[in-house]
């Protein structure tokens, strides 16, 4: 069936009412929607009238569109979009489906609020304070502490803290200079002939002395007093004194220390 509405400004099928309002031939503010809905609900209660699902969905669609159009006119701050432009390219059932999905969202939200309200109804807040006769006794932090102990603790707190001292008396520093070693080697090597570096340093007790002797040999080689050679890779370094007549000039020796 086609539902016929009767209002002070229009009487006829509901589809025609929507078309007239969309064409601006009728003002939606002049159409009371509540009597229309009440009349349709009353017709549903009439057992002699059978309403198909398609007719029911069509009425819900048109009623939802009219309700939205009227609320847009009543609420301030809305844009000036024409009511019919919003639904251009939309099938009636697509619009109805969009409305139903929107209503389902609101229904789910209302169910969530109902669940929260039910959960809150099972909570009973405490409406009174601590029961009479209940005394809170904090522990005595100074129980068993005498005035002598307090005075001793105070003195320990204000006494000057000792400064940390790093003691190096257990560290032995060998002060061996390259210049002194050069002089000593210039006196020993002429009488020792050709020998290896291993033989020269086999009696030394520390690594720093071996390093200083090697640097001193390099200085003597640079001055032209000795010749250094190595027969094989990683082999022993051979030392040979060249000329005893040449004087040793310590001014040309580097001044670094080992």
State the helicity in percent bands: 40-55%
Structural class: mainly alpha
Number of strands: 5
Number of separate domains: 2
How are the elements arranged and paired?
Blueprint: E1 4-6, E2 11-13, H1 14-22, H2 33-45, H3 53-74, H4 92-121, H5 147-158, H6 178-192, E3 195-196, H7 197-200, H8 207-222, E4 226-230, E5 237-241
Antiparallel strand pairs: 1-2, 3-5, 4-5
Protein model, in words:
The structure is a single chain. By secondary structure, this protein is mostly helical. The chain has eight helices and five strands. The chain has helices spanning 14-22, 33-45, 53-74, 92-121, 147-158, 178-192, 197-200, 207-222, and strands at residues 4-6, 11-13, 195-196, 226-230, 237-241. A hairpin with a 4-residue loop joins strand 1 and strand 2. Helix 3 packs across helix 4 (92-121) and helix 6 (178-192) packs across helix 8 (207-222).
Summarize the structure.
The chain has 258 residues and is mostly helical.
Index terms:
2 domains, Arc Repressor Mutant, subunit A, two-stranded antiparallel ribbon, single chain, elongated, mainly alpha
């Amino acid at each position: 069936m086609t539902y016929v509405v009767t209002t002070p400004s229009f009487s006829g099928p509901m589809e025609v009412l929507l078309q007239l309002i969309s064409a601006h031939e009728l003002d939606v503010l002049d159409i009371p929607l509540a009597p229309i809905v009440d009349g349709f609900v009353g017709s549903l209660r009439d057992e002699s009238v059978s309403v198909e699902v398609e007719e029911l969905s069509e009425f819900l669609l048109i009623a939802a569109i009219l309700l939205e159009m009227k609320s847009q006119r009543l609420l301030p701050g809305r844009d000036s979009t024409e009511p019919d432009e919003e639904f251009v390219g939309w099938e009636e059932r697509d619009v109805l489906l969009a409305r139903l999905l929107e209503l389902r969202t609101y229904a789910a939200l209302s169910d969530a609020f109902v669940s929260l309200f039910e959960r809150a109804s099972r909570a009973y807040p405490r409406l009174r304070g601590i029961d009479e006769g209940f005394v809170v006794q904090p522990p005595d932090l100074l129980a068993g502490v005498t005035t002598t102990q307090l005075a001793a603790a105070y003195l320990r707190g204000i006494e000057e803290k000792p400064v940390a001292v790093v003691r190096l008396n257990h560290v032995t520093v060998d002060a061996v200079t390259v210049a002194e070693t050069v002089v000593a080697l210039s006196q020993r090597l002429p009488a020792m002939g050709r020998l290896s570096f291993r033989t020269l340093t086999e009696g030394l007790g520390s690594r720093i002395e071996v390093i200083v002797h090697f640097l001193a040999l390099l200085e003597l080689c640079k001055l032209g007093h000795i010749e250094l050679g190595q027969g094989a890779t990683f082999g022993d370094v051979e030392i040979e004194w060249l000329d005893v007549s040449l004087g040793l000039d310590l001014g040309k020796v580097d001044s670094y220390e080992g």
